[in-house]
């Protein structure tokens, strides 16, 4: 046969050479080696090929195979010169070589192609990339490279029940992550090699991965788990939805991350890893829920390490009981109503629940409406509830539809969360036979930044696009016409912002639905796309140039290590680089911590089979071209776990680096912490009413959080009969006075009710969350919220239940009304008026506000503390709600209003329905009104949305930006109509920046200025001023790089030791009167003048001026004080004095000769507004490769206050600004040097002909230095303490006047001074605390004052001054004459007359 085949091929070749070929055939795929789909197969599966056939002036009709009919070829497309064919094989191929000839139009003479190919088994080479490593995110895992496989190859592991044993995850490029689950690793934890195997076409391949037993060995020989507590402690628990039993224990393991899996039964092997919540290494407290999967007795094993490496199980038993959730069953009917706009039909569905034993208990229900009702919408009371009470009620829902479709049936299904309900079939009123489908004309993905892509669809359809649907990670996703950026729904472009890591690629097709309800499918699969002749649609993912990041990463370091996070967050920077750096420079690299606190914020579910991608807010790496490395700014939460702090770098959805995969020198370490990752709990509950009390209905809670303290919380309560809703917000300030403190205190929640309400019912807590001062939260919910339901990834971990102490009796969360008449009012409230402020809306405009005004009445009384909700419903049954407020009310009538902004593009172009639900009377009945009810009552019920402005610019979101400024991305729509961005800073500065318009929905703003405060951004068009976007506010992420943790310094450095309190020498009491008189001060012997506030100075003659608080400077810690006309004696209305206090430099000086060694000027500060009176600034200097952090806190005192600093009590006068300056470690050039913190003080006036001066000396009472700079009668007064806190100890410091060394300015109206606060050698930290005030002096400084500088004119005499001098001199002369004349007075009457005449004459001339 082989000889015959060779002869046939030679003969065929000879014939073709003689005749020549009319067609040329090209094998486009050019794949000549085939492999099995699965490693366990001993054959190659059927395959596909793509051919291009070319011919001049004639089309190819078919392509054929010479050796049989085991394939089908499809004509794809063609023209007069070429045709494309897709051929699919039917035959499974054994391992061998093959040759096949293909020819055209059943005529081998017209053209043929010989293809040689081979079916091969895999030749696999195993490379261990990462040994078995433990992490909280992955548990035990390793990474291997299986060279020789395809990424699409399925690997069939040789494990029994492999789903519960090992997971094998393809990372791309033949890399695989192996995740080992409890069923696998518990029995083999003492093995140094972990092995898994798979079948490779008949041969067994074993992957042997090293496991470092020593690394995970518990050196504590005693039992590892102590103080095991179970909640409830009697072993019986009533399941409240998902909140089952909980255990808490301590681990005394020597390991930072002891491995204590909690496994539910040997057969089930469903497991969870307890999480650490407090303590220290060797004494760590853990907590875990006991998964409540079934009723009855369930047994668990909590494993602990013994004999250094192996496990033993501690048995735990719990008996669960629960109520079975009832299914929604009853009659359902519908009616069809056509509206007057002829654009939609209105279906109203009514469900009635009565006498069937189904009580509504505020659970969310789901309803699905469509051709296939899989797109669940979740709602809770009051939506849909039209009348009755929770024992006997009716539901009525109006669903909009166009009334025409090419589908024969629609379905509405109502269900509870755990059980399906009735399913109603609906037939459209107008069935259209047209099967026109949406056409995807183009599809593209454009990378933007930080994992984000822009997806652009160009679509056409006769009836218009309705929405796009797909499934990613088992979560349904919809894209609606709000993404339309140009054209219209019949021929337009949609742009979608897409996160390629948190969402990423999908194996599901994208389904495009038009308004005829016809779908068209676009697949990510090449074969499907080719066969359907459609565009292949692959949702974007981050593409890596290299998968060797674990090998390549290097040079990891942190700005701060061995960090102290005790009661403080710490901002930090991570630095790192890679070998083969060109593979990474342009790659987005995300970062997140994976410590217990951050994992809680990331909604991490600590189960064995969860998705790895965290719902984190990532920080992103920035490439530093100068230093050839990346850096990432991030924040360490306060009081998180001790030891090595876990983190991860993310490259794409499946590829990341965990810190536990890296060596010790790359780790970030926590040196000091009060570890607490557990939220507040309730330790005591008192229910009201007590016995026969009827005045209080509610609870008294004792809320406890022993480490961080309680901050705030939120509690939701519902009535069991009328579903009345009460929301309470708790703050630490709400604590019962005298009941405790933030660590343990009492709080009261009381429900308002009126004694003559005629319904007896329970009020029950349905939802509660309590949060501590650093954001740890504990949460309880009786019913799943819509958030958990929509996420479709429900956290079964109930260990964060704040009511953990009451799991054996959750009835404690119910209180009952007393002394009621036990009669339910069966007459529901009536709606008397319902009016929408507009009947149509442009859903693409800036003005999309709509207001609803309505009135309700109930003659037996309405509950005045309940707020009905208005719902708007679109064509796809999506709803948005508007919660009302009360305008006016009396017992029987209430007027309501609410205003909402309609979402962009909502329900375009067919309009949306209105409905209102949630009216509750005092007799226990409620009512609500569907769109059909509103229409029947001639109320507003429908709003048109035909208008959808496409070019109107609207900013909807932005990228994050920090206080260093930089590039900013804006997201929204209509951006191509703009050409200018305007940025408004909080200080009123407005500026424009360069912008790059990437598309209609994305703009890149370049070089946003650094700021610590929010900015307002809007877009405009210079040529067309009417084109203007909304104003969008953006708050930067503010980093302060200040760390007080110990940093190693040379051992030769001697730490300062505490010294005695510095005491100023005795001073003489000055002034005339002494010390300003009895109202300004008094003289104390051997001390000096003691001044009464607000007087200060050596003679108490200066008064502190009370002025408005100066506005903080956002650029640097400078205080500028403007003082206008505070001198009452000054008649110049334009008189102004300006004072300036600044921190300008750090100066290193030789302590022996005082010579300057180095000076570090501080130019850039990071500003943060802590409160209305406190501002914080941070900067850094680098000396000898050590970074020193300078932190300056400026605090303004409006009134007189007493403070303590460095164990000294100080009085802060009104209008005083206090500077608290803190330095981290500084690398001195040698151990003989000191540091000086240089502060500049300056005061200047706009007056001329005045004098200025300065004083520097010792104060009297507070043993400090002072500086006084004076112009005219105004002064700035600075107090410099002679003590500071150095390395945590109170130490004497000195203050030096540096004016001669730094060339200060001094003239008649401007005086400047530099003060150096001298600090000796230290190791870790320095804190100093000067303060400044503005003074008004009793006497202006003049040329006779010490050290004064005066203007030239001040030294010459004015006319008035000359007159005074002359008159004074003349009078003085007269006095002399009188004295002399007295001698002869008695002797000569003539002389007496002469003196009298002279005196009289002088008086007239004066």
Outline the structure in words:
By secondary structure, the chain is mainly β. The protein has eleven helices and 102 strands. Strands 80, 81, 85, 86, 87, 90, 92, 93, 94, 95, 96, 100, 101 and 102 form a 14-stranded antiparallel β-sheet that branches. The longest helix is centred in the C-terminal third of the chain and has 27 residues, at about 1360-1385. It is globular, with a radius of gyration of 41 Å. The N and C termini lie far apart (about 150 Å). Residues about 1-20, about 325-340, about 1045-1060, about 1125-1130, about 1355-1365 and about 1370-1405 have low confidence and may be disordered.
Question: Which short descriptors sum up this protein?
Answer:
1406 residues, mainly beta, 14-stranded antiparallel β-sheet, nine-stranded antiparallel β-sheet, 11 helices, 102 strands, disordered C terminus
A few lines on this structure:
This protein has 1406 residues and is mostly beta strands. The strands form 23 sheets. Strands 80, 81, 85, 86, 87, 90, 92, 93, 94, 95, 96, 100, 101 and 102 form a 14-stranded antiparallel sheet that branches. Strands 24, 25, 28, 29, 63, 64, 67, 68 and 69 form a 9-stranded antiparallel sheet that branches. Strands 82, 83, 84, 91, 97, 98 and 99 form a 7-stranded antiparallel sheet that branches.
């Amino acid at each position: 046969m082989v000889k015959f085949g060779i002869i046939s091929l030679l003969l065929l070749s000879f014939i073709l050479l003689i005749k020549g070929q009319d067609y040329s055939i090209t094998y486009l795929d050019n794949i000549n080696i085939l492999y099995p789909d699965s490693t366990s197969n001993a054959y190659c599966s059927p395959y596909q090929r793509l051919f291009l056939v070319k011919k001049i002036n004639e089309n190819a009709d078919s392509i054929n195979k010479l050796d049989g009919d085991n394939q089908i070829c499809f004509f794809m497309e063609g023209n007069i010169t070429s045709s494309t064919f897709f051929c699919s094989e039917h035959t499974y191929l054994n391992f061998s070589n093959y040759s096949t000839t293909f020819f055209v139009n059943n005529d081998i003479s017209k053209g043929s192609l010989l293809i040689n190919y081979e079916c091969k088994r895999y030749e696999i080479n195993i490379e261990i990339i990462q040994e078995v490593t433990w992490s909280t995110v992955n548990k035990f895992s390793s990474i291997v490279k299986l060279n020789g496989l395809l990424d699409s190859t399925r690997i069939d592991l040789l494990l029994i029940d492999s789903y519960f044993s090992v997971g094998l995850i393809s990372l791309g490029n033949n890399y695989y992550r192996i995740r080992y689950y409890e069923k696998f690793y518990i029995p083999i934890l003492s093995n140094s090699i972990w092995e898994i195997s798979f079948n490779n076409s008949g041969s067994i391949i074993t992957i042997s991965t090293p496991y470092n037993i020593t690394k995970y060995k518990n050196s504590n020989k005693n039992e590892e788990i102590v103080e095991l507590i179970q909640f409830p402690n009697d072993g019986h628990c009533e399941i409240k939805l998902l909140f089952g039993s909980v255990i808490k224990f301590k681990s005394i393991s020597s390991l930072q991350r002891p491995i204590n899996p909690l496994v539910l039964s040997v057969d089930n092997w469903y497991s969870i890893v307890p999480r650490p919540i407090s303590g220290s290494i060797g004494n760590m407290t853990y907590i875990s829920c006991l998964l409540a999967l079934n009723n009855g007795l369930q047994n668990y094993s909590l494993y602990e390490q013994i004999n250094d490496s192996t496990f033993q199980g501690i048995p735990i038993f719990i008996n669960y009981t629960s109520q079975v959730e009832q299914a929604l069953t009853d009659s359902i009917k519908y009616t069809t109503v056509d509206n007057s706009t002829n654009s939609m039909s209105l279906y109203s569905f009514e469900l009635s629940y009565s006498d069937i034993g189904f009580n509504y208990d505020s659970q969310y229900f789901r309803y699905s409406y469509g051709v296939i009702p899989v797109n669940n919408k979740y709602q809770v009371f009051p939506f849909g509830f039209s009348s009755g009470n929770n024992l006997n009620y009716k539901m009525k829902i109006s669903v909009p539809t166009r009334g025409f479709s090419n589908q024969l049936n629609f379905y509405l299904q109502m269900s509870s969360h755990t059980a399906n309900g009735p399913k109603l079939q609906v037939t459209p009123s107008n069935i259209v036979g047209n099967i026109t489908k949406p056409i995807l004309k183009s599809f593209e993905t454009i990378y933007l930044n930080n994992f984000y892509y822009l997806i652009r669809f160009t679509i056409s359809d006769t009836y218009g696009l309705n929405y796009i649907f797909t499934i990613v990670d088992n979560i349904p996703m919809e894209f609606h016409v709000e993404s339309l950026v140009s054209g219209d729904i019949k021929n337009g472009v949609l742009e979608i912002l897409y996160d390629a890591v948190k969402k990423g690629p999908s194996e599901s097709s994208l389904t495009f639905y038009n308004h005829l309800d016809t779908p068209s499918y676009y697949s990510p699969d090449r074969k499907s796309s080719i066969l359907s002749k459609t565009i292949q649609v692959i949702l974007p993912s981050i593409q890596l140039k290299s998968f060797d990041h674990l090998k390549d990463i290097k040079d990891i370091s942190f700005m701060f290590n061995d960090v102290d996070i005790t009661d403080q967050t710490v901002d930090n920077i991570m630095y790192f680089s890679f070998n083969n750096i060109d593979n990474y420079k342009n790659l987005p690299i995300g970062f997140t911590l994976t410590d217990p606190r951050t994992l809680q914020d990331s909604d991490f579910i600590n189960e064995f089979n969860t998705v790895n991608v965290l719902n984190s807010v990532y920080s992103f790496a920035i490439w530093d071209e100068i230093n050839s490395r990346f850096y990432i700014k991030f924040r360490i939460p306060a009081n998180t776990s001790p030891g090595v702090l876990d983190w991860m770098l993310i490259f794409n959805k499946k590829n990341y680096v965990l810190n536990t995969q890296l060596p010790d020198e790359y780790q970030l370490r926590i040196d000091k912490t009060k570890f607490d990752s557990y939220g507040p709990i309730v330790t005591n509950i008192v229910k009201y009413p007590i016995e026969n009390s009827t005045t209080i209905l509610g609870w008294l809670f004792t809320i406890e959080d022993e480490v961080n303290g309680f901050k705030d919380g939120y509690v939701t309560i519902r009535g069991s009969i009328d579903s009345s809703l009460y929301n309470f917000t708790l703050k630490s300030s709400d604590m019962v006075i005298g009941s405790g403190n933030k660590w343990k205190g009492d709080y009261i929640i009381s429900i308002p009710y009126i004694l003559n309400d005629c319904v007896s019912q329970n009020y029950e807590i349905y939802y509660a969350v309590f949060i501590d001062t650093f954001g740890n939260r504990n949460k309880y919910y009786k019913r799943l919220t819509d958030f958990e339901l929509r996420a479709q990834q429900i956290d079964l971990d109930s260990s964060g239940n704040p009511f953990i102490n009451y799991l054996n009796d959750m009835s404690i969360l119910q209180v009952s009304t007393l002394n009621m008449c036990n009669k339910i009012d069966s007459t529901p409230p009536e709606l008397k008026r319902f009016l929408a402020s507009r009947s149509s809306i442009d859903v693409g405009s800036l003005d999309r506000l709509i207001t609803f005004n309505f009135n309700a009445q109930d003659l037996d009384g309405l509950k005045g503390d309940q707020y009905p909700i208005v719902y708007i419903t679109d064509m796809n049954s999506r709803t948005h709600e508007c919660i009302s407020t009360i305008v006016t009310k009396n017992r029987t009538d209430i007027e309501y209003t609410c205003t909402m902004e309609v979402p962009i593009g909502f329900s375009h172009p067919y309009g949306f329905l209105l409905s209102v639900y949630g009216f509750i009377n005092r007799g226990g009945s409620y009512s609500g009104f569907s769109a059909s009810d509103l229409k029947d009552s001639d109320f507003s019920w429908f709003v048109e949305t035909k208008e959808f402005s496409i070019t109107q610019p609207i900013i909807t979101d932005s990228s994050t930006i920090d206080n260093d400024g930089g590039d900013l991305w804006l997201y929204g729509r209509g951006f191509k109509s703009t050409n200018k961005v305007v940025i408004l800073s909080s200080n009123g500065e407005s500026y424009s920046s360069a912008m790059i318009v990437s598309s209609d929905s994305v703009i890149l703003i370049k070089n946003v200025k650094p700021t610590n405060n929010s900015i307002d951004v809007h877009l405009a068009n210079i040529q067309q001023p009417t084109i203007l976007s909304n104003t969008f506010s953006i708050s930067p992420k503010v980093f302060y790089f200040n760390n007080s943790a110990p940093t190693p310094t040379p051992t030769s450095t001697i730490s300062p030791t505490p010294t005695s309190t510095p005491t100023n020498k005795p001073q003489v009491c000055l002034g005339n009167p002494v010390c300003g008189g009895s109202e300004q001060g008094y003289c104390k012997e051997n001390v000096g003048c003691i001044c009464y506030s607000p007087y200060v100075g050596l003679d108490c003659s200066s008064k502190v001026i009370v002025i408005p608080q100066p506005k903080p400077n956002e650029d640097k810690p400078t205080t500028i004080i403007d003082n206008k006309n505070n001198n009452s004696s000054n008649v110049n209305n334009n008189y102004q004095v300006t004072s300036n206090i600044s921190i300008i430099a750090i100066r290193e000086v030789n302590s022996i000769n005082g010579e300057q060694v180095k000076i570090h000027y501080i130019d850039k500060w990071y500003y943060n507004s802590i409160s209305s009176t406190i501002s914080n600034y941070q900067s850094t200097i680098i000396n000898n490769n050590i970074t020193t952090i300078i932190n300056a806190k400026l605090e303004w005192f409006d009134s007189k206050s007493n403070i303590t600093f460095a164990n000294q009590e100080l009085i802060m006068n009104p209008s005083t600004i206090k500077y608290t300056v803190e330095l981290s470690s500084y690398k001195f050039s040698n151990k003989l040097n000191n540091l000086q913190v240089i502060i500049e003080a300056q005061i200047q006036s706009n007056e001329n002909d005045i004098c200025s001066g300065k004083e520097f000396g010792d104060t009297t009472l507070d043993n400090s230095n002072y500086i006084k700079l004076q112009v005219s009668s105004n002064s700035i007064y600075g107090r410099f303490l002679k003590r500071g806190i150095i390395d945590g100890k109170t130490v004497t410091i000195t203050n030096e006047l540096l004016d001669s060394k730094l060339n200060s300015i001094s003239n008649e109206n401007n005086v400047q001074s530099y003060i150096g606060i001298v600090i000796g050698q230290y190791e870790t930290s320095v804190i100093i605390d000067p303060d400044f005030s503005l003074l008004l002096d009793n006497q202006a400084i003049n040329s006779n004052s010490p050290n004064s500088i005066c203007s030239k004119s001040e030294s010459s005499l004015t006319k008035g001054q000359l007159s005074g001098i002359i008159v004074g001199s003349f009078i003085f002369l007269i006095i002399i004459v009188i004295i002399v004349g007295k001698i002869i007075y008695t002797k000569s009457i003539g002389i007496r007359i002469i003196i009298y005449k002279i005196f009289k004459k002088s008086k007239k001339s004066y």
